Structure formats: C-alpha cells, structure tokens
Amino acid sequence: MPARSVPPVVSVPDTPTRSNTQNGPASPPGTTGAAGGDRAAVALGQAALPMSAGQPLNPEAAVSVRGLRKSFGRKDILHGLDFDIPADSIVGLLGRNGAGKTTALSILSGQDPATDGEVSVLGRSPFEDATTASRLCFARENQKYPESFKASHVLRSAPWFFEHWDQGFAERLVRMFRLPVETKIQKLSRGQLSAVAIVVGLAARAPLTFFDEPYLGLDATARQLFYDVMLQDYLEHPRTIVMSTHLIDEAADLLEKVLVIDDGRILLDADADTARTAAFSLSGPAAAVGQVSAGWTALNERRIGGLLSVTLAGQPDPGLAAAAAEHHLEIGSVGLQDLVAAIGSRPTDALGGAAAETSKEQR
Ligand SMILES: Nc1ncnc2c1ncn2[C@@H]1O[C@H](COP(=O)(O)OP(=O)(O)OP(=O)(O)O)[C@@H](O)[C@H]1O
Fold it and tell me: 231 CB less than 6 Å from ligand 1?
C-alpha cells in the first residue's frame, strides 16, 4: 500500500484527506468505509479553519487583515495572513518561537509597515497613524524607555498617552506585582519589566491591547495574578485584548478565540471551544492504534517502545470508540497546548506526513 502525504486538514478547507476506499486497509470494526479525513475535516469544522483568502475586510472587527505579508530583505516572514479579531474579546495568538507573532503584532500596532496586504485596526490603517496609536496599547517586556526612566516616570506619563488610564488601578497593580517604582527601569529584573508592561497594558484600558508574551520572567504566582486580574478587569471594562503566548494551557480559560500561527501562516483560526474539541488522542499498542486510526487524520504521533499515541483531528465517533474499546486503546482529550504543539510540530511542507508514515508502518 503506498504511503500518501495527507494534505493539511487544518489549513485546507473542504479537502478530503484520505479515503479508506483509495488508501486504507479494511475499516476497523464499527466504522464505516467513509473517508476518515472527511470526518476529521468536518469535525474540525469551518470554524476552526483559517479564513479563506479574498474575503473583504470586516468593518465590524477590531482587527481585520487580508493577505498580510512581511519580508525583511529577501526573507519572507508572513506569507499572506487572513484573519479577523472580533471587538470586545480576548484572543490568543499562539505559535512556536519564530512563528511571526511579534512581527504581526508590530504591524497591527502600527510600528512596522506591512510589505503587502490590507490591515484595518479599529477601522483605520495603523501604520504611523496617530489616531490608531492613541487607542491601542502594545505591552511588552522589552519596551524601550529613556535611560533615566523609572517605573514611576512611566506611570506618571501614561495618562498623556492613554485616554482611559486609571491611576488608582495602576497603583493597585504596582502593589500586587510588588513593582519597585523608584528603581531605574534598566536595573529591573525581567519579571519586573514584565510587570511594568502588565501595569501599563491593563491600567491603560485601551480599546485594543496587545500583550506580547506578557509573562516573561514572572513566577507562577504572578502569572496567575495577571490572568485573574486581566479577566476581572476585562469583565468590568470590556475591550479587545490580543495576547501572544507559549504558555497556552495557563491562559486557555481566558481565551475566546485562538489564532495559531506557524512559519508565518495561520494554521488554525477558531473560537476557543471549537479548538478545545478539534482533536483527541488515541493510545496503546502501536499496531492496534494504527489499525483503529486508519482513515483518520493524524496531526501528531508519539512513540515509546511498542506504544503509540496519535493526535487525531475531530472527535471520536461511535465506530472508533467501539474499535478502541475492543483493542483496549485509550481515548483522551487534547488540550489547547497539545493541539498547538501537534499542528505546529509538523514541517509546513509535509503536514500529514506523520500520519502517512504511521499508516504505512502498519501495513
Ligand atoms: N528585523 C528583522 N529582520 C530580519 N528578520 C527578522 C526581523 N524581525 C524578526 N525577524 C525574523 O522573523 C521571524 C519571526 O520572528 P518573530 O519575532 O515575529 O517571531 P515570534 O513568533 O514572535 O517568536 P518568539 O515566540 O520566539 O518571540 C524570525 O525568523 C525572526 O528571525
């Protein structure tokens, strides 16, 4: 049986990924002969797939991006992104190191020009636009400040930049994060620099806030404090918050929508609930896992000795559940972190290769 590369179900809408009729072995007990890839694509759903190109900008969205490209010299970093960020939501921009998250945020915040494409932020083109700049806050730990600046200077000057700045809230945050406001910023630890960014990002109450990995250097207690206080303040003062993060499971409960970016491409664009049910795991003896998962789209696999765990797109149907039970295989849920790791772990030009290899080895 020839191995076949499986198209990237998470980034190619409506593409059947495999058909048992064409490729697979006999259907496992309890399953039909219908294409598992179709099932998986349906289960991932349109809501989980990246937006298709060619749609007009969405005037209702806080951020609307079409065909966004960015190159540095000859190096292409963003390869034509299409996505919307709904107003009054908390959105996670998720992806591995070097995926292009900061590059995208720099463009959305107007600090960098796009190489190509359309970008609408709060209804305007953001690059070097003073109106947009006055309505957004880009909070990051490596923000540049004048050499002599202390956090107290930052907090005193913030009201000039942010119309909705809440000084009392800023002071409460300073106490919560134990920020030494009279120490020069240059002397602050990485965690304290993150705390400065968090205080500014939250107390600014900007209509649109970008947090770029806001937790760098923060201990677990401080990170939880940040998530709690952000959610509380967001509920009291709804606004649009976009947070790039690697610590996905920590932040998962906050997120209403997730955008997964990898190698400058959007791999997943989904509301968080859809993403949480976009995949499941199947584990047990490798041969049985291979047999039962044949026809399903494998996003990732882990092998330890003779045991295999595969992450499969979609949700288990009764046929798969029965086959898994018969072979004493374990079906598990896949959290957001694992889903992102699974879809981001495959080479972009070989998505599905792991699945094909898995199936091949079984035959
Ligand atoms: N000014 C620049 N010149 C050349 N290449 C750049 C520049 N800025 C970023 N890059 C490259 O663009 C790619 C994406 O970087 P970016 O910082 O956007 O990734 P990221 O997803 O934020 O990563 P991380 O999670 O590690 O912060 C990387 O390969 C990086 O080396």
Answer: no
Mean pLDDT for 313-337 is 94
Which residue's alpha carbon is nearest to atom 13 within ligand 1? 98
Q: What is the CA(275)–ligand 1 centre distance, in A?
A: 25
| 103 close to ligand 1 (CB < 6 Angstrom) | yes
Cα-Cα end-to-end distance for the chain: 7
Tell me which residue of 60, 46, 51 sits closest to 117, measured CA to CA.
51
Dist. CA 29 → ligand 1 center (Å):
48
Does ligand 1 come within 6 angstroms of the Cβ of 102?
Answer: yes
- Catalogue the long-range contacts made by 145-153 (C-beta closer than 8 Å, 24 or more residues apart): 145/185, 147/186, 148/184, 149/184, 149/185, 150/181, 150/182, 150/183, 150/184, 150/185, 151/179, 151/180, 151/181, 151/182, 151/183, 151/185, 151/188, 151/196, 151/199, 152/181, 152/182
pLDDT at residue 180 is higher than 80:
yes
Which pTM was predicted? 0.80
Report the distance separating Cα 225 and Cα 231, nearest Å: 10
Q: Which atom of ligand 1 is nearest to the CA of 246?
A: 25
How far is the centre of ligand 1, averaged over its atoms, from the C-alpha of 197 (Å)? 20
- pLDDT score at 16: 27
**Nearest-angstrom CA–CA distance, 245 and 197:** 15
CB neighbourhood size of 183 (10 A) = 14
ipTM of the complex: 0.97
Is ligand 1 within 6 A of the CB of residue 34? no
In terms of residues, how long is the chain? 363
Q: What is the pLDDT of residues 116-130, one digit of tens each?
A: 999 999 999 999 999
